[in-house]
Amino acid sequence: MLNLPDNYVLMEPSWKQELSLLKSIIQKTELKETVKWGIPVFTYNGQNIVGIAGFKSFFALWFYNGIFLKDPNKVLINAQEGVTKALRQWRFPSGEDIDEKLILDYIEEAIENEKQGKKIKPQKKQILPLPELLGEALDKDPSFKEKFIQLSLGKQNEYIEHLISAKQEATQLSRLEKIKPLVMEGKGLHDKYKK
Question: What is the mean pLDDT of the chain?
């Protein structure tokens, strides 16, 4: 059994032996190993190809551009339907499910896809429709409107989502008053949580 470095986040330590086996299989390819997001990630020319991680009831391979894999054995899933575009996950409920040849076939195809430059192009974000309350507040206060327009689309959308998620008008009004100072400072709703 190979030892995984201490800086790996196994998420579920009971899979250590299985993750070590996956790692040894991946090391038979031309991929380079690194650690990203606390998990082992294997790259080709600096591009993420596959990662490994353990969870409570399974361990998994993450194919970063898995959408392009043919998947003849139907082992890949989209772990977050509607959210994840390219990432695909191969879950293993037990170590007995590890098929080295099949795993290497998928990894080699993923490497070939990278060599061919297959990638999903990110979609440009569009601003959400303005809620009526926010539209009125922006019309009444030109400096507030100017500062809101100067925010990135992502920050504008954060504020819009925050307002429309409140069901009652009183809550929407309260939230609107709380966001005004942040907007005037050019800050996003969640900036205090970002480093």
Answer: 89
Element housing 63 (H / E) = strand 59-63
Count CA atoms closer than 13 A to 188's CA, side-chain side. 15
| CATH number of the domain that residue 54 is part of | 3.90.1150.200
**Domain-located, residue 105:** yes
pTM equals 0.62
pLDDT confidence bin for 11, thresholds 50/70/90: low
Q: Identify the domain boundary among 115, 140, 157.
A: 115
H helices within the chain, ranges in order? 16-26, 100-115, 132-140, 142-150, 153-164, 169-184
Distance, in Å, from the CA atom of 7 to the CA atom of 81, rounded to the nearest integer, reads 30
